[in-house]
Design brief:
heterodimer; A: mainly beta; Porin; 16-stranded antiparallel β-barrel; two-stranded antiparallel sheet; 6 helices; 24 strands; disordered N terminus; B: mainly beta; Immunoglobulin-like; 4-stranded mixed sheet; 17 strands
Chain lengths: 536, 193
């Protein structure tokens, strides 16, 4: 999400490739996450009303989100700070002859968040310097490292009606001021279905910048590291020693998108769907026309008229035996409340077009021209989520597929004049995770991530020594990268959390760049990460 | 035996002289907000449990009232007036964990009853909403009162005699003082955290 702007710049392709892979696969930076203390203030209630282990939502939190960041029923009776009226309700009778009445929260719904980390990398980290000539300064990877994380500000709420909003922004990242960016920023018009006589909550409109409705939110993950499959781009084979693919799709599902989303249903029961139409941002080419001054607040980051489409559908079966509990927002029994015992099945589909532009010639074989390949791509996946009281098992499988249009140069032409279809660039993978809430303040986590990408492996087996990527800290042993990540999290307070995870990294190997011969056995650079964060 | 009988008769005569009941009044200081003042158990004197039930509500994610004083033997109805589920439990009564109890969880409009047969301080909690807290002060005698915000209180119809009177305040140390009631009697308390 935060490297989005970077990816839109026109830096050299090799640098993009290396930085992208390095950042998303190996560095596995701690992810940002959000809980909303502003809601605690407004309602005078604990974070644990909505969160199991912030920012992971419990069923009530999901219902709160579903309702437009308010209590599903009788919201006004829970507000501890009375809202400020922006017009008497009776004004509504005069509409459209007056401004429709609304409210703003009695307390400014703003929250702050900060986190910091300590990590320790295993001794194998030095293996990557084996390829360097004596006397060469290599990439230094410290054994241990303290690392400041994100300092973020965020706000969310509703306008006393069915209009909700959310804005979050990272003010500082890794100790560098104003190095972050806008995360999500949107308005959400809930329950539009009532205007067209559809069932309640069956149609909601969201407008702005947002993360698409993933099976689990990468932007608001409770893990220290994100799920690998959501950060997987599809670059295609670029190693000149093998047939090269003309695919450079930097899009990853974790990216925020700009557009509109239609959704409906509930996250706590029955169906829920999301259909989003968003800007295409897939070529790494930022387009901001010279006649538009970005300082005026308008800039174009999309590079085509085509819009990408995202669709998701999930159906959840609540399995509580007691009919009353089954229908309630949060299941309850004699020993207290708990999330419903449930199982849900979901699917997602993303369709877009990745634009590749390059210098070529017209069909006369002489006249210079810019050739544009619009390569269709899709991501399709399925997911399952099972919850039994305090045990939550979930996972997903995803396939990525990019059409590959190779430049075609006719005999005698001074450059390519068009494109022909080549073998598609594909990847696949997913994850399985088990979260066990041993106590309300202790959650144990076991996770397995897998990404299978032949291109990722080929690209780093034998790169060009004359133009190496900025870091050699990545060299997958095989096309399949597995990562096991056990972890445990403690709530020191409801809004202070310490997290630990041990990342059994994907197997790696170091090749001699000149010969392509392996000079190490397969090894892993495992990492232990300890995080501390608070929301205020 | 004969002297014991005389003492008992004298004590009972003193305690049952309701027609000549006095009043204990005063002020609880050193703390702010409502407190509860009650007469401790009287030796060899029992009081019938009140037949009237009282209600402790859960409304707006709060126990309402925050503090409820009842006589030993009173049945309290725990009502949920919120549109979210609430739970009621207490881990002890005056520190005695054997008296801890979990009433369960129930939705809006429903209530659960519990008869408090043991005197003491019952710290109420809700395991759905950890910020919620309330107190039931179970007085061993019918002689108790809640103070106003300024700490003033008045306990009426207390028979003349010698008693131990205790003042309780949330988060403060209890204080018990001997009080000889003879008509209109003053008993002030100074509590500290």
């Amino acid at each position: 999400m935060h490297c989005r702007r970077l990816l839109k710049s026109t830096i050299a392709f090799g640098t993009i490739l290396a930085v992208l892979v390095f950042a998303t696969i190996i560095a596995v930076p701690p992810y940002s996450s959000y809980a909303i203390p502003a809601f605690s203030r407004l309602y005078g209630t604990s974070c644990t009303t909505c969160h199991l282990d912030f920012p992971k939502l419990n069923d009530f939190g999901k219902a709160f989100k579903d309702a437009g960041f308010k209590f599903p029923k009788d919201d006004e009776s829970f507000l501890k700070a009375p809202p400020i009226m922006l017009g008497a309700p009776a004004q509504a009778e005069l509409w459209p002859h007056t401004v429709y009445p609304g409210v703003i929260p009695g307390l400014l719904p703003v929250g702050l968040r900060y986190n910091t980390y300590f990590q320790k990398v295993s001794a194998n980290r030095d293996n990557f310097n084996l390829v360097l000539a004596p006397g060469t300064i290599g990439t230094f990877i410290p054994k241990t490292d303290f690392q400041p994380g994100y300092f973020s500000i965020f706000s969310a709420g509703n306008f006393g009606s069915d209009i909700a909003f959310w804005v979050d922004d990272d003010i500082s990242v890794a100790g560098a001021n104003v190095n972050g960016s806008l995360g999500d920023g949107y308005l959400r018009f809930h329950n539009l279905s009532r205007l067209i006589k559809l069932p309640k909550d069956s149609l909601t409109l969201r407008v702005g910048q947002f993360e698409v409705e993933l099976p689990v939110s990468q932007a608001r993950t409770w893990n220290l590291s994100g799920w690998d499959i959501f950060s997987q781009a599809n670059i295609g084979v670029q190693n000149g020693l093998t047939p090269v693919q003309n695919v450079n799709n930097t899009f990853a599902l974790e990216d925020v998108v700009e557009g509109v989303e239609f959704s409906g249903g509930h996250l706590t029961r029955g169906y829920h769907y999301s259909v989003a139409i968003v800007d295409q941002n897939t070529s790494g080419t930022m387009v901001s026309p010279p006649n538009i001054d970005p300082q005026n607040g308008v800039a174009f980051y999309s590079d085509a008229n085509f819009k990408d489409i995202y669709a998701r559908f999930v159906y959840r079966f609540n399995l509580e035996k007691d009919p009353v509990s089954r229908a309630d927002v949060q299941a309850a029994g004699p020993t207290g409340p708990h999330d419903h015992t449930y199982i849900s099945f979901g699917t997602l589909y993303y369709y877009g077009r990745s634009v590749q532009r390059q210098t070529g010639v017209l069909s006369d074989g002489v006249t210079p021209s810019v050739l544009t390949a619009r390569e269709p791509f899709y991501r399709v996946g399925g997911d399952i989520n099972f919850n039994y009281r305090t045990l939550n098992l979930f996972g997903m499988y995803l396939v990525g597929h990019d059409e590959n249009l190779l430049p075609f140069t006719p005999t005698g032409a001074g450059g390519p004049t068009g494109f022909v279809a080549g073998p598609a660039a594909t990847f696949s993978g997913g994850f399985i995770e088990a979260d066990y809430l041993a106590l309300p303040w202790i959650m144990a986590i076991m996770r397995w991530d897998q990404v299978k990408s032949t291109a990722d492996r080929v690209n780093f087996i034998e790169y060009n020594p004359a133009s190496p990527p900025p870091s050699s800290f990545f060299s997958p042993y095989s096309a399949t990268r597995n990562r096991f990540t056990p972890g445990i999290q403690f709530l020191i307070h409801a809004n202070i959390k310490t997290s630990f995870e041990y990342q059994f990294r994907p197997q790696q190997i170091v090749y001699n760049p000149a010969t392509g011969v392996p000079i190490t056995k397969a090894f892993r650079t495992n990492t232990a990460v300890l995080g501390l964060e608070f929301a205020y | 035996m004969k002297s014991n009988t005389l003492i008992a008769i004298t004590a009972m005569a003193a305690l049952t002289g309701m027609a000549h009941g006095g009043t204990i009044h005063g002020k609880v200081s050193g703390v702010s907000g409502e407190s509860v003042v009650y007469v401790e158990a009287v030796a060899s004197k029992t009081f019938p449990a009140p037949s009237q039930q009282v209600t402790m509500d859960q409304k707006g994610l709060m126990f309402v009232p925050h503090i409820l004083a009842v006589q030993q033997g009173t049945t309290v109805q725990f009502l949920n007036s919120d549109s979210v589920a609430h739970n009621v439990f207490w881990i002890s009564i005056s520190g005695n964990k054997k008296l801890g109890h979990n009433l369960g969880t129930w939705p809006k409009g429903q209530k659960q009853a519990f008869k408090f047969d043991n005197p003491g301080v019952v710290p109420l909690l809700c395991n759905v909403h950890p910020e919620m807290a309330g107190y039931i002060i179970v007085s061993p005698t019918p002689y108790f009162a809640e103070t106003d915000r300024s700490g003033e209180y008045k306990i009426e119809n207390v028979p003349d005699g010698a008693y131990t009177v205790t003042a309780w305040h949330e988060g403060a140390k209890n204080k018990s003082n001997p009080v000889n009631v003879a008509g209109d009697t003053t008993a002030d308390f100074t509590l500290s955290k």
